[in-house]
Design brief:
The protein is of the alpha/beta class. It contains 19 helices and eleven strands. The chain has helices at about 15-50, 80-90, 110-125, 145-150, 150-160, 165-175, 190-200, 205-215, 220-235, 235-250, 255-265, 270-280, 290-305, 310-320, 330-335, 360-375, 390, 410-415, 445-465; strands at about 5, 10-15, 60-65, 95, 95-105, 130, 175, 180, 375-380, 400-405, 470.
Length: about 475
């Protein structure tokens, strides 16, 4: 057995060395989290200053905008659609003044938006609420409920910005991925060194060490999976896919590789992803379902749904629901993005046994009910280029909701000018929620203006129908 020796002469094993490295990583992650939250506080302070409530409140129509980074002013000189909306409304109307409060916060899920809703309603007392939300819901850890809202510690843990990396490193240290157990060899210095490089943010050096581990035939399977994770962090999807295939070649057992690979390719190659997901489900049919198999059913149902294969989507969702034991049903269902169960979401009585995208659907409905109770008009707005029916299908159809589409206006604009004039990135292609994947991203000022003009037209139509005197300038 190979040991590492401290200067004091005390010997420590490779396992202990990895443990010390991970302890350092965890402490570093805590410091990173603190730094991120300080940055968040600065952002919120700036936003709260912009959201100052006017001293003169007579004849002012208040609008509250809710969302995440696509709604927030990112302080990058590109403005935001709520700010542009306020300018447009006030330039076009006489007799009434508009104030648009922007509570878009980067990284927010619909859970956290709901958690803050009551406070925001009390603070701003809006006449109307506009949402463009759900983009980050793929990372939801639990279904929204009053317990989460009242438990700030749980809410803090659920929203840690570095929790994904920390969890991955912990699972690596526990030496088990999915259904395949393995042992880190004490003499595999390459593998151990890769941990230290990842901790230091030296991804290229970590890549070299893991490749060397493969060349020396030390923990090849583990090294391929580690490389896949590393390439994911580096944004190298082609290399990530190649590593998953190498891992499958060495050991075809275990559903996790098939699910992770499917998640990587399902948008561009849905037929191939479908085959991989079926393999993940079939691989150990007599063993109690694990988390990866649940996600396999879930993603398979989404692929069917997106292709109009509704019966097969229903069967896949039922397959996931039926395999969840009653003892941990709530916990397991929280893992699913697309499929839900009638038992957990009884509000879906009008649409059959299974709810699609249960967490997001539930949160949209809860938000509407809260606004309805407070007699606040609700506008549900879709992201640029996406189908408005995605939002409409979340509701029963008899609600008093104004739906705003940004599909046709953006398709026309993009055909004329191209994406570069409207988006500073195409983050919509990489969102963790398949429900809101698309060819859009964070807006330029021109993009924010286009959204705002679209919303302004709808608001004017709505308010004129209610009898409000809006003499246009």
């Amino acid at each position: 057995m190979n040991h590492f020796v401290k200067k004091s002469g005390v010997k420590i094993t490779a396992k202990e060395k990895i443990g010390l490295v991970l302890l350092s990583i965890i402490l570093t992650l805590i410091m990173i989290e603190i730094g991120l939250r300080i940055g968040g506080f600065i952002f919120l302070a700036t936003q709260h200053f912009r959201n100052t409530i006017p001293a003169e409140t007579k004849d002012i129509y208040y609008i509250l905008a809710l969302g995440e980074s696509t709604t927030a002013n990112l302080l990058n000189g590109q403005s935001s659609w709520p700010e542009e909306l306020e300018i447009i409304l006030n330039n076009r109307a006489n007799g009434v003044k508009f104030k648009v409060f922007n509570e878009g916060i980067p990284g927010e899920t619909t859970n956290t938006i709901l958690s803050n809703l009551e406070d925001n309603l009390n603070k701003y007392n809006p006449n109307m609420v506009i949402t463009m939300m759900g983009f980050n819901d793929g990372k939801l850890n639990m279904v929204y409920d009053q317990e989460l809202k009242n438990d700030k510690f749980k809410e803090f843990l659920a929203n840690l910005r570095v929790s994904k990396l920390a969890k991955w490193l912990w699972l690596s240290y526990k030496k088990k991925i999915g259904d395949y157990s393995y042992t880190i060899k004490e003499d595999n210095k390459c593998f151990i060194q890769s941990f230290e490089y990842i901790y230091s943010g030296k991804f290229k050096e970590a890549e070299e060490m893991l490749k060397k581990s493969i060349e020396l035939k030390l923990d090849e399977y583990r090294a391929y999976l580690m490389l896949a994770n590393l390439y994911s962090l580096m944004g190298k999807s082609k290399e990530e896919e190649e590593m998953y295939w190498k891992a499958i070649e060495i050991n075809p057992r275990g559903s996790e590789k098939y699910v992770l690979l499917s998640w990587l390719i399902y948008m561009e190659r849905p037929s191939e992803a479908e085959k991989l997901l079926k393999k993940a489900i079939e691989i150990q049919p007599n063993v109690q379902i694990n988390n990866y198999e649940l996600v396999a059913y879930d993603l398979l149902a989404y692929i069917y749904y997106s292709q109009g294969r509704l019966t097969e989507a229903e069967e896949a969702c039922n397959g996931a629901s039926n395999k969840i034991s009653s003892s941990n049903k709530r916990e397991k269902m929280n893992l699913l993005i697309f499929c839900g169960s009638k038992d957990l979401f009884p509000i879906d009585e009008s649409k059959g046994k299974i709810i699609v995208f249960p967490k997001t659907t539930n949160n949209y409905r809860v938000l509407y009910q809260l606004l309805k109770r407070n007699k606040i008009k609700y506008i549900s707005m879709q992201y640029p280029t996406l189908d408005i029916n995605i939002l409409k299908n979340m509701f029963k159809g008899n609600e008093d909701i104004i739906f705003i589409s940004n599909e046709e206006n953006f398709k026309k604009a993009l055909n004329h000018s191209g994406a570069g004039e409207y988006f500073i990135d195409l983050v919509g292609k990489y969102t963790s929620s398949p429900l809101f994947k698309g060819n859009f991203g964070h807006c330029t000022k021109k993009c924010n203006r286009l959204i705002a003009e679209n919303v302004a037209d709808i608001i004017f139509e709505e308010l004129e129908l209610t009898g409000m005197n809006l003499t246009k300038k």
